[in-house]
């Protein structure tokens, strides 16, 4: 099976990119997939949650002009389960590069990862940059978690435009869709904004949502998936997360 690469991207922080990335990684690993996570977000939340799976390679090195970089790290390593390529402060230097050069370097290393992994997940910064654009130019798929708040919807509108523009340079990039996240049906503006989102984007919105649940944040803080939280309250969250991971992996064609 050829490795499939998914970027999580939206031009707004706090939307659930890290939650989605980490749970896709956890679920992929329990399905027996070899999953590599590249944390390109300067906040490094995915690197915190997946810290136990760090391999010693840093995300900024994925932009180095080192042809044998991936080979040297992974050729003699057991790459089963989850492998984390940790975020680091040197990612800020990528903005000094020409976008085409940055994207070419990242894409070359991502392609090299395909020898060792089945799925590559990229967590991106919450703003348009060389780093985010390079991730989208290196990915096969992109998805966008979005909260049902006015600023979030504005960020989603910008993200759709960015994806459309970058598909000219990466025509194989497929938009899996928007994931409504932290949805609270008791908040009228959430209900109204959900209707606005589905009306404006129709099939681009995933046909389910993730509700506002403390157990998800608790799981990420404890560096475990939500299905390992031993509380009754975590059951509904687990069901919602598993619907999401099943849907995304089917769209990526890494499971049947």
Automatic annotation (TrEMBL):
One Pfam family of this chain: AAA_31
Name recorded for this polypeptide: ParA family protein
Phylogenetic classification of the source organism: Bacteria, Pseudomonadati, Pseudomonadota, Gammaproteobacteria, Pseudomonadales
Species in which this protein is naturally found: Pseudomonas fragi
Domain (AAA): residue spans on this chain: 3-174
